[in-house]
Amino acid sequence: MTRKWMGPAAKAAAVVMGGALVVRAQSLGGRFAAGMGNMARGGGEQAMANRALALLDNSRLRTALNLTDAQVSQLRKIVVGAEESSIKTHADLAVAGIELRELLRQDKPDNAAVMGMVSQIAQLRDALMKRQVEALLAAKGVLTPEQQKMIRQFIARRAMAARMGHGGNSRPPGRD
Prior knowledge:
- This protein is mostly helical.
- It has one domain (7-163).
- 77% of the residues lie in helices and 0% in strands.
- The chain contains eight helices and no strands.
- Helix 6 (69-105) packs antiparallel against helix 7 (111-142).
- The radius of gyration is 19 Å and the shape is elongated.
- The relative contact order is 0.17.
């Protein structure tokens, strides 16, 4: 069997299956509304979703991973559903962050109101993380074990290349 270049294929799969990394970045980088980074606002997730959707339409991706039309359709639904949910939750988080900021600006903040808002933000982050992991698990459920193995191998090669300073643009062995 001839090895095919996995660049676009693995990138799309990594986008679909890399939701856990996004969730981790959010949990570490989440801030109140003022000064939130792009990832904490959801911009990073939206960019990932856009890349995933574009790559799902890439014929090289389909060929390299042997994706069926049904798999592509299912993955597209998962990505779009996760994107919609994420945008809504991030909007709720931004509003809650603003409300918390304003509560904390008071000379004598109401402890119960502040702590209630903190709990609301924690619940929103929890829900966001759970939905992202659910999307990740759903995407894994669409892919065969062999397709998942190919994706994991690509991600490992890309991580190693990035650590070695090669920018992470990894190709399968023998394709140097």
